Amino acid sequence: MLPKILLLVIILLITVVSLNNYSRSESLEFIIYSHNIRFPAASYKRSTKELPWSNRKGGVIGAIESNTSNYSSLIGLQETTHSQLTDIIDGLNQESPSWSYLGVGRDDGVKKGEYSPIIYNKNQWKVLNDTSVWLSLTPHKPSRYPSANKNRIVTLGIFRHLKTGKTVNYLNTHLDHKSKDARKYSAHLLLDLINSIPNDYPTFLSGDFNSIESDEPYRILSKKLNDTSKVSSKLIGSDLNTFSGFGNKKRYNIDFIWYSGKDKCIPVSHSVVDNYMDNGYRYSDHRPIFTKFIVD
């Protein structure tokens, strides 16, 4: 599988020289935040108790703001269309006009189809690399794995924290909801992608993996990565499952935050956030999760 991501290695090598000579003295305390926000379903496709996006977006934006405002943060979203992404960036920029994103639409590599974007604050982070890879046999062009229901994508960013000089690698993704084979292949591809990054900085992976802990993709990833819901010093909301439905579906944990670079990185706390709005409806069928880290 490695030859298929050779192009990525070449692209990433461009950043290595600037990374190697940068000061890394001050510790970085920051948050990885992940949330499947639910695409803006047409009225005839909406679940019972599911409100239209126009009534949900305030809850999604408010949750991001309230849970990340005290720390530098990197935010990974799933099931995000371009119009939703625009709404979220516009909403965040009302408080601090410095938010931007990495990522492309999975259907055409531009704006069509769902994104797995990474949102960041330009006053906190400098982007050193921005790469999109499809979870398929042809990872450098819009495509899907043969048995997958949809095109699936992973967004990779290399970020330098402006205040501390610390550098981190962050990947955000959403695995296929239909095909077990596609999810298994994607898990292997994600590890190959992580292994190909030509630096030794801490690496973080978030997303909706459409896999519970007993499924093979989880087991594949757990051989090389750490699940923050298992190893964080403090767990908040651990009684809540990450998939909630809109109140009428089975509940389970399929959203995770992973990390490597154990000797340089401490997961201080892992949180699951409830997704109820004041009107009693949910702003997504998934609950947000976030982990606070210290990187030395």
From TrEMBL:
GO terms for molecular function: 3'-5'-RNA exonuclease activity. Residues 74-286 form the Endonuclease/exonuclease/phosphatase domain. It holds the Pfam family Exo_endo_phos. Keywords: Signal. Residues 1-18 form the signal peptide. PANTHER family: CARBON CATABOLITE REPRESSOR PROTEIN 4 (PTHR12121), ENDONUCLEASE_EXONUCLEASE_PHOSPHATASE DOMAIN-CONTAINING PROTEIN (PTHR12121:SF36). This is Endonuclease/exonuclease/phosphatase domain-containing protein. It comes from Candida maltosa (strain Xu316).
